[in-house]
Amino acid sequence: MTESARTGRDAEAVSRFVESFAAQLVEAGMARMPARVFVALLSSDAGSMTSAELGEQLRISPAAVSGAVRYLAQTHMVSREREPGSRRERYRVHGDQWYEAITNRDAVLKRWEIALREGVTSLGADTPAGRRMSETLAFFEFLEGELAALMERWRVHRDKTFGPG
Hints:
This protein is mostly helical. Helix content is 70%, strand content 7%. α7 (105-123) runs antiparallel to α8. The protein starts with a helix and ends with a helix.
């Protein structure tokens, strides 16, 4: 039995929401299948589903679910959990997935900064290209510095709004 059937929700309305929000994520740069899987998980009451449940709801193959979940796990948007006493995995989205995903971008920013410093050196700081690289580097350094403070402000706001997590 699907979640919509158990909860009395309109399965078509849920499907339209999943596809609509997934399309917004695709416009923002996320790949289509991971976006669909992520929104399906996000919109489920349990916040978790098996590969079979995702495949049934989204009408996609197990391979499509697997590829999408691999991407989402690498970006810290979902986690995999083994069902007790089973070889089946459940895929779970957590309430703080956006926080985790953005916080984990810190490592990416650091790698970009290293590459950009090398670019400034290679191109020459006084060349037009070197100056563009320097400005890009300064932007990412600024972003990295602001991100920590922003995430702390979010934690305080979240605790005040939803209670300690």
